[in-house]
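Side project, low priority. Logging it here so it doesn't get lost.
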Amino acid sequence: MRPASLSDLSFSQRSIQDYLDCQRRFALRYLSKLRWPAVTSEPIDEFERLTDLGTRFHQLVYRERSGVDPGLLLKTTQDPTLRTWFNNYLDHFQRPTRQASFAEITLAVSLEETYRLEATFDLVYRSPEGRFKIIDWKTSRKRPQRERWQNRVQTTLYPLLFSAAGDELFPEGDFFEAGLDMVYWYPEYPTQPEVFSYSQDQADQDWVWLQEILGQIAGKETLEHDFPKTAQTERCRFCVYRSFCGRGTKAGILDEELAATLGEEVSLNIVKFDEIESIKYY
Protein backbone atom coordinates (compact mmCIF):
# COMPACT_ATOMS: atom_id res chain seq x y z
CA MET A 1 0.00 0.00 0.00
CA ARG A 2 1.39 3.42 -0.97
CA PRO A 3 1.13 6.31 1.50
CA ALA A 4 -1.78 8.68 1.15
CA SER A 5 -1.21 12.01 -0.56
CA LEU A 6 0.53 14.48 1.74
CA SER A 7 -1.76 17.18 0.40
CA ASP A 8 -4.48 15.58 2.53
CA LEU A 9 -2.44 15.96 5.74
CA SER A 10 -1.94 18.83 8.13
CA PHE A 11 1.41 18.43 9.85
CA SER A 12 1.47 19.42 13.51
CA GLN A 13 4.07 19.14 16.23
CA ARG A 14 2.43 15.89 17.33
CA SER A 15 2.45 14.23 13.90
CA ILE A 16 6.05 15.23 13.19
CA GLN A 17 7.10 14.08 16.66
CA ASP A 18 5.31 10.79 16.04
CA TYR A 19 7.31 10.34 12.84
CA LEU A 20 10.61 11.03 14.60
CA ASP A 21 9.73 8.76 17.54
CA CYS A 22 8.27 5.89 15.51
CA GLN A 23 7.69 5.95 11.78
CA ARG A 24 5.26 3.04 12.00
CA ARG A 25 3.10 4.89 14.52
CA PHE A 26 3.03 7.89 12.20
CA ALA A 27 1.95 5.73 9.27
CA LEU A 28 -0.75 3.92 11.24
CA ARG A 29 -2.16 7.08 12.80
CA TYR A 30 -1.99 9.59 9.96
CA LEU A 31 -1.74 7.64 6.72
CA SER A 32 -3.74 4.48 7.42
CA LYS A 33 -5.89 6.40 9.92
CA LEU A 34 -6.15 3.22 11.97
CA ARG A 35 -8.22 3.47 15.13
CA TRP A 36 -7.07 0.84 17.62
CA PRO A 37 -8.98 0.04 20.84
CA ALA A 38 -6.23 0.27 23.44
CA VAL A 39 -5.62 2.45 26.47
CA THR A 40 -2.58 4.70 26.59
CA SER A 41 -1.63 4.09 30.20
CA GLU A 42 -2.52 2.29 33.40
CA PRO A 43 -4.15 2.88 35.81
CA ILE A 44 -6.93 4.11 33.54
CA ASP A 45 -8.70 6.14 36.23
CA GLU A 46 -5.53 8.05 37.11
CA PHE A 47 -4.71 8.69 33.48
CA GLU A 48 -8.20 10.04 32.88
CA ARG A 49 -7.99 12.20 36.02
CA LEU A 50 -4.73 13.80 34.91
CA THR A 51 -6.04 14.30 31.40
CA ASP A 52 -9.18 15.93 32.77
CA LEU A 53 -7.21 18.25 35.06
CA GLY A 54 -5.03 19.43 32.18
CA THR A 55 -8.06 20.04 29.99
CA ARG A 56 -9.89 21.97 32.68
CA PHE A 57 -6.89 24.17 33.43
CA HIS A 58 -6.65 25.12 29.76
CA GLN A 59 -10.37 25.89 29.77
CA LEU A 60 -10.11 28.05 32.90
CA VAL A 61 -7.34 30.15 31.42
CA TYR A 62 -9.15 30.45 28.10
CA ARG A 63 -12.28 31.70 29.86
CA GLU A 64 -10.29 34.16 31.97
CA ARG A 65 -8.60 35.42 28.79
CA SER A 66 -12.07 35.76 27.25
CA GLY A 67 -13.15 38.14 30.00
CA VAL A 68 -14.84 35.90 32.58
CA ASP A 69 -14.24 37.12 36.13
CA PRO A 70 -11.50 34.98 37.80
CA GLY A 71 -13.35 35.06 41.12
CA LEU A 72 -16.38 33.51 39.49
CA LEU A 73 -14.22 30.84 37.87
CA LEU A 74 -12.69 29.97 41.24
CA LYS A 75 -16.12 29.69 42.85
CA THR A 76 -17.10 27.04 40.33
CA THR A 77 -13.81 25.13 40.67
CA GLN A 78 -13.91 22.51 43.41
CA ASP A 79 -10.87 20.34 42.70
CA PRO A 80 -8.07 21.43 45.09
CA THR A 81 -5.28 20.77 42.58
CA LEU A 82 -7.06 22.74 39.89
CA ARG A 83 -7.76 25.61 42.30
CA THR A 84 -4.08 25.73 43.25
CA TRP A 85 -3.00 25.78 39.63
CA PHE A 86 -5.42 28.54 38.70
CA ASN A 87 -4.47 30.60 41.74
CA ASN A 88 -0.82 30.17 40.78
CA TYR A 89 -1.65 31.43 37.31
CA LEU A 90 -3.50 34.45 38.71
CA ASP A 91 -0.76 35.26 41.23
CA HIS A 92 2.40 34.56 39.26
CA PHE A 93 1.74 34.77 35.53
CA GLN A 94 2.26 38.26 34.11
CA ARG A 95 -1.07 38.44 32.35
CA PRO A 96 -1.19 40.70 29.30
CA THR A 97 -4.20 42.77 28.35
CA ARG A 98 -6.76 40.87 26.36
CA GLN A 99 -6.27 43.31 23.49
CA ALA A 100 -2.59 42.33 23.25
CA SER A 101 -3.07 38.57 23.47
CA PHE A 102 -4.71 35.64 21.70
CA ALA A 103 -5.68 32.42 23.48
CA GLU A 104 -6.22 29.00 21.88
CA ILE A 105 -5.49 30.30 18.40
CA THR A 106 -4.54 28.14 15.41
CA LEU A 107 -2.19 29.34 12.69
CA ALA A 108 -1.38 27.43 9.52
CA VAL A 109 1.11 27.93 6.71
CA SER A 110 1.85 26.21 3.43
CA LEU A 111 5.42 25.09 2.76
CA GLU A 112 6.35 24.99 -0.93
CA GLU A 113 2.60 24.83 -1.70
CA THR A 114 2.85 21.13 -0.85
CA TYR A 115 2.92 20.68 2.92
CA ARG A 116 0.36 22.22 5.25
CA LEU A 117 1.70 22.99 8.72
CA GLU A 118 -0.37 24.10 11.67
CA ALA A 119 -0.09 24.76 15.39
CA THR A 120 -2.59 25.67 18.07
CA PHE A 121 -1.14 28.10 20.58
CA ASP A 122 -2.35 28.19 24.19
CA LEU A 123 -1.49 31.88 24.40
CA VAL A 124 0.48 34.39 22.33
CA TYR A 125 1.06 38.01 23.27
CA ARG A 126 3.42 40.96 23.20
CA SER A 127 4.92 41.73 26.58
CA PRO A 128 5.17 45.25 28.02
CA GLU A 129 8.88 45.07 27.22
CA GLY A 130 8.01 44.48 23.56
CA ARG A 131 9.01 40.82 23.25
CA PHE A 132 6.62 38.36 21.69
CA LYS A 133 5.73 35.35 23.86
CA ILE A 134 4.39 31.94 22.90
CA ILE A 135 3.02 30.26 26.03
CA ASP A 136 2.31 26.56 26.34
CA TRP A 137 0.70 25.34 29.58
CA LYS A 138 2.28 22.16 30.94
CA THR A 139 0.26 20.53 33.71
CA SER A 140 2.48 17.57 34.57
CA ARG A 141 3.17 17.27 38.29
CA LYS A 142 6.91 16.83 37.70
CA ARG A 143 9.04 19.39 35.90
CA PRO A 144 11.31 17.84 33.24
CA GLN A 145 14.89 18.93 32.69
CA ARG A 146 15.45 21.66 30.11
CA GLU A 147 17.13 19.16 27.78
CA ARG A 148 13.84 17.33 27.44
CA TRP A 149 12.29 20.33 25.65
CA GLN A 150 15.34 21.27 23.59
CA ASN A 151 14.89 18.19 21.45
CA ARG A 152 11.13 18.30 21.02
CA VAL A 153 9.44 19.32 17.78
CA GLN A 154 7.15 21.74 19.61
CA THR A 155 10.10 23.92 20.68
CA THR A 156 11.04 24.31 17.02
CA LEU A 157 7.72 24.30 15.20
CA TYR A 158 5.73 26.74 17.34
CA PRO A 159 8.04 29.76 17.06
CA LEU A 160 8.83 28.85 13.44
CA LEU A 161 5.17 28.94 12.41
CA PHE A 162 4.47 32.00 14.54
CA SER A 163 7.33 33.87 12.87
CA ALA A 164 5.82 33.00 9.48
CA ALA A 165 2.13 33.66 10.18
CA GLY A 166 2.01 35.75 13.36
CA ASP A 167 1.87 39.03 11.44
CA GLU A 168 -1.81 38.30 10.86
CA LEU A 169 -2.26 38.73 14.61
CA PHE A 170 0.40 41.39 15.16
CA PRO A 171 0.78 43.23 11.84
CA GLU A 172 3.12 45.79 13.34
CA GLY A 173 5.49 43.23 14.80
CA ASP A 174 9.02 42.44 13.67
CA PHE A 175 9.30 39.26 15.73
CA PHE A 176 13.02 38.69 15.50
CA GLU A 177 13.99 42.31 16.01
CA ALA A 178 11.65 42.69 18.99
CA GLY A 179 12.47 39.23 20.38
CA LEU A 180 10.53 35.97 20.29
CA ASP A 181 10.32 33.45 23.14
CA MET A 182 8.84 29.96 23.41
CA VAL A 183 7.75 29.51 27.03
CA TYR A 184 6.65 26.33 28.79
CA TRP A 185 4.74 27.43 31.88
CA TYR A 186 3.93 25.02 34.71
CA PRO A 187 1.06 25.86 37.10
CA GLU A 188 2.68 23.41 39.51
CA TYR A 189 5.93 25.43 39.33
CA PRO A 190 4.70 28.98 38.64
CA THR A 191 8.04 30.69 39.23
CA GLN A 192 10.05 28.29 37.05
CA PRO A 193 9.00 28.67 33.43
CA GLU A 194 11.22 27.16 30.75
CA VAL A 195 12.10 29.85 28.19
CA PHE A 196 13.67 29.35 24.75
CA SER A 197 14.55 32.44 22.72
CA TYR A 198 14.19 32.13 18.96
CA SER A 199 16.20 33.89 16.25
CA GLN A 200 16.16 34.46 12.50
CA ASP A 201 19.21 32.19 12.11
CA GLN A 202 17.39 29.39 13.92
CA ALA A 203 14.33 29.86 11.74
CA ASP A 204 16.42 29.62 8.55
CA GLN A 205 17.99 26.37 9.78
CA ASP A 206 14.66 24.97 10.95
CA TRP A 207 12.96 25.53 7.58
CA VAL A 208 15.70 23.45 5.95
CA TRP A 209 15.37 20.73 8.62
CA LEU A 210 11.59 20.66 8.22
CA GLN A 211 11.79 20.38 4.45
CA GLU A 212 14.14 17.43 4.85
CA ILE A 213 11.79 15.62 7.23
CA LEU A 214 8.71 16.19 5.07
CA GLY A 215 10.68 15.21 1.99
CA GLN A 216 11.60 11.92 3.64
CA ILE A 217 7.94 11.18 4.31
CA ALA A 218 6.93 12.10 0.76
CA GLY A 219 9.60 9.76 -0.62
CA LYS A 220 8.27 6.67 1.13
CA GLU A 221 6.95 3.96 -1.17
CA THR A 222 4.97 1.55 1.01
CA LEU A 223 3.42 1.65 4.44
CA GLU A 224 4.50 -1.91 5.23
CA HIS A 225 8.23 -1.59 4.55
CA ASP A 226 9.24 2.09 4.53
CA PHE A 227 7.86 3.10 7.93
CA PRO A 228 9.76 0.91 10.40
CA LYS A 229 8.89 0.37 14.05
CA THR A 230 10.99 2.22 16.57
CA ALA A 231 14.02 0.43 17.99
CA GLN A 232 13.36 2.14 21.34
CA THR A 233 10.77 -0.35 22.56
CA GLU A 234 10.16 1.47 25.86
CA ARG A 235 8.09 3.95 23.86
CA CYS A 236 5.70 1.16 22.89
CA ARG A 237 4.37 0.85 26.44
CA PHE A 238 2.43 4.10 25.96
CA CYS A 239 1.39 3.61 22.35
CA VAL A 240 -2.13 2.43 21.50
CA TYR A 241 -0.76 0.37 18.59
CA ARG A 242 1.52 -1.81 20.74
CA SER A 243 -0.62 -4.95 20.37
CA PHE A 244 -1.18 -4.31 16.66
CA CYS A 245 2.61 -4.16 16.20
CA GLY A 246 3.27 -7.18 18.42
CA ARG A 247 4.97 -5.06 21.07
CA GLY A 248 2.84 -6.13 24.03
CA THR A 249 -0.78 -6.01 25.10
CA LYS A 250 -0.60 -4.27 28.49
CA ALA A 251 -0.28 -0.50 28.84
CA GLY A 252 2.63 1.00 30.75
CA ILE A 253 2.16 2.13 34.34
CA LEU A 254 1.76 5.88 34.60
CA ASP A 255 3.77 7.75 37.17
CA GLU A 256 4.40 11.48 37.36
CA GLU A 257 8.10 11.26 36.59
CA LEU A 258 7.43 9.15 33.53
CA ALA A 259 4.57 11.38 32.44
CA ALA A 260 6.84 14.41 32.56
CA THR A 261 9.55 12.60 30.62
CA LEU A 262 7.41 11.15 27.86
CA GLY A 263 5.22 14.22 27.42
CA GLU A 264 3.25 14.00 24.19
CA GLU A 265 3.51 10.21 24.17
CA VAL A 266 1.40 10.10 27.33
CA SER A 267 -0.65 13.08 26.11
CA LEU A 268 -1.90 14.53 29.38
CA ASN A 269 -2.98 17.77 27.75
CA ILE A 270 -5.54 16.73 25.18
CA VAL A 271 -7.81 19.75 24.98
CA LYS A 272 -10.94 19.99 22.86
CA PHE A 273 -12.63 23.37 22.91
CA ASP A 274 -15.79 22.78 20.93
CA GLU A 275 -16.73 26.39 21.44
CA ILE A 276 -13.46 27.76 20.03
CA GLU A 277 -13.34 28.68 16.38
CA SER A 278 -9.88 28.15 14.94
CA ILE A 279 -8.38 30.89 12.78
CA LYS A 280 -6.09 29.69 10.03
CA TYR A 281 -3.81 31.77 7.83
CA TYR A 282 -2.18 30.78 4.57
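Brief comment: The CA atoms of residues 63 and 224 lie 45 Å apart.
Revisit when time allows.
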